[in-house]
Q: What sequence folds into this?
């Protein structure tokens, strides 16, 4: 006998799914998220579901896990005290950013503050040339002095990002070794390990974000593994990555930045699986939980994947207002509208919903856990969309009177509306906001959402999908069984997967094909070794190659597929055609 668990921690609820692989039986569960100690909620949920499903803990062979812990730490600025070591003369590159303005007409623009304050951004004497050659060797005496000063000042983590280190990591590796000699307890991340790519600001931002959350994620994963073993669960813990693949804890601890969007990614994978099973080439994934709603375009039975995204945006809907993170991520738009989103009337007398949320603590007013603000869940209860006696399968009773008091006191009186009309207003506003964001998401990717069936899930997704679908004019709605825990099920559908990247700058018609073949072979060998270490048979592994290319003179690249096998000058027409197809589809 064997069983597998999927566990997804959301802002309000922690969702769980267990599959008995002997009988095929599936059971779902939900517990309130314990925000101050997320592993405790997971432990509670696993124990409850083991009892309900009559699964012996010793029979659990795997637990796949998705979490928003890293995301929350970046948004709330609750990571480690982090320092940055960089090339002499480039201390402020991370604050200068790209020099552009994400809103050129706003004179009071808020730019995202770096994770590392200026007093902890230190320069070291060294310099590499753009081809990776050493112009000035690393001054180890000066480097030791700088590192010792930072340690004396109490830093807990150090990011190392030197100019052109993506081509030659020798100086970064030596600095990391010096940190290890002087303070082995301090977490270290080198840009040549985290994101060995061109573009100084993006590389530095990603590396600092990685080490900023590394101590927190290491403690959390160790605590979670300990708690699972304490329950008698011997199975391997897997962690969902933002790209849609699952990884083992050692990689997650070394590169925690790859987990930033791990929870939402699982839901998109579940939608993609549903599309393939139904034979649908396309779907619009609509995931509405307690804190946020997410929309994701599924094309060809797979979600769209981006090579970069932003966290902690100063303006939720404006690109460039957040910290750039250069890692693969399933591409979706997130709207600050979930079941726990708080409704209010602003000073202009307009009804607003979100992005602030009541979460699990204190929760919506109808939960009777201390919440007094009106939320989307309170409005849905008053409108009859929720059964007060059968919430969470009858394990949690909702208080209709408390919901009515909150809606009337904070919205109804201000607008001169009764409870039902005010609740309907909240419901309509949140639906319009989600539909507008989803439409923008489709337009930016050149997709007409009127051709995409809506796949709705999450605790609040099925409640709101009809109105959202009506506004978007989609052809039909699909509602899966156990919709509230579909993201947890998506974790069990995820493959073990790893992504590797290297930078080569050359014109394609003058490429060094031997050098390209060596790079692809090295990345493939590294990936196969990791898969083998995780127990994947060699014949079960597959490889996909991608290249980011641009027309000469352009500023940014377009991603296109590259054929497997040995590349040569005869591969040029195939690669060119793939690039032109991708370019045409995008623009």
A:
């Amino acid at each position: 006998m064997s069983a597998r668990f999927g566990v997804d921690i959301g802002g309000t609820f922690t969702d769980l799914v267990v599959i008995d692989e002997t009988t095929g039986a599936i059971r779902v569960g939900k517990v309130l998220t314990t925000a101050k100690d997320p592993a405790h909620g997971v432990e509670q949920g696993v124990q409850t579901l083991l009892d309900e499903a009559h699964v012996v803990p010793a029979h659990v062979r795997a637990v796949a896990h998705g979490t928003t812990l890293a995301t929350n730490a970046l948004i709330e600025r609750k990571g480690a005290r982090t320092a940055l070591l960089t090339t002499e003369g480039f201390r402020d590159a991370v604050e200068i950013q790209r020099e552009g303005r994400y809103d050129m007409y706003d004179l009071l623009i808020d730019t995202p503050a770096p994770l590392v304050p200026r007093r902890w951004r230190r320069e070291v004497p060294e310099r590499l040339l753009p081809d990776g050659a050493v112009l000035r060797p690393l001054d180890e005496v000066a480097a030791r002095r700088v590192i010792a000063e930072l340690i004396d000042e109490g830093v807990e983590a150090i990011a190392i990002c030197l100019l052109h280190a993506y081509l030659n990591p020798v100086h970064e590796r030596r600095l990391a070794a010096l940190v290890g000699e002087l303070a082995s307890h301090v977490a270290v991340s080198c840009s040549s390990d985290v994101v060995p790519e061109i573009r100084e600001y993006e590389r530095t931002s990603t590396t600092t974000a990685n080490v900023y959350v590394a101590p927190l994620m290491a403690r959390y994963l160790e605590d979670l593994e300990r708690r699972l073993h304490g329950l008698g669960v011997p199975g391997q813990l897997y962690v969902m990555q933002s790209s849609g693949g699952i990884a083992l804890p050692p990689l997650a601890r070394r590169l925690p930045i790859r987990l930033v969007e791990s929870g939402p990614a699982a839901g998109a994978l579940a939608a993609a699986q549903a599309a393939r099973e139904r034979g649908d080439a396309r779907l619009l994934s609509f995931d509405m939980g307690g804190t946020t709603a997410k929309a994701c375009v599924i094309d060809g039975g797979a979600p769209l994947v981006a090579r970069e995204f932003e966290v902690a945006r100063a303006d939720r809907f404006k690109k460039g207002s957040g910290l750039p993170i250069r890692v693969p991520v399933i591409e979706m738009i997130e709207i600050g509208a979930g079941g726990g989103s708080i409704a209010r009337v602003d000073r202009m007398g307009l009804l607003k919903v979100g992005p602030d949320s009541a979460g699990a603590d204190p929760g919506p007013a109808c939960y009777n856990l201390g919440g007094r603000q009106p939320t989307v869940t309170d409005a849905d209860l008053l409108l009859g969309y929720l059964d007060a006696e059968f919430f969470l399968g009858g394990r949690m009773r909702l208080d209709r009177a408390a919901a009515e008091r909150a809606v009337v006191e904070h919205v109804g009186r201000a607008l001169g509306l009764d409870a039902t009309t005010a609740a309907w207003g909240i419901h309509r506003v949140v639906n319009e906001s989600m539909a507008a964001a989803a439409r923008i998401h489709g337009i930016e990717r050149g997709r007409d959402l009127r051709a995409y069936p809506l796949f709705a899930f999450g605790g609040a997704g099925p409640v709101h999908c009809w109105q959202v679908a009506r506004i978007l004019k989609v052809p039909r709605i699909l509602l899966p069984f156990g919709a509230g825990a579909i993201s947890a099920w998506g974790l069990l559908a995820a493959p073990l997967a790893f992504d590797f990247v290297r930078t080569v700058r050359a014109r394609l018609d003058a490429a060094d094909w031997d050098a390209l073949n060596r790079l692809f072979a090295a990345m493939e060998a590294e990936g196969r070794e990791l898969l083998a270490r995780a127990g994947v048979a060699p014949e079960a592994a597959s490889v996909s190659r991608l290249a980011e290319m641009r027309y000469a003179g352009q500023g940014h690249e377009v991603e296109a597929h590259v054929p497997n096998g040995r590349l040569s000058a005869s591969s040029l027409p195939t690669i060119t055609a793939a690039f032109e197809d991708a370019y045409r589809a995008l623009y």
Observations:
- The chain is about 35% helix and 20% strand.
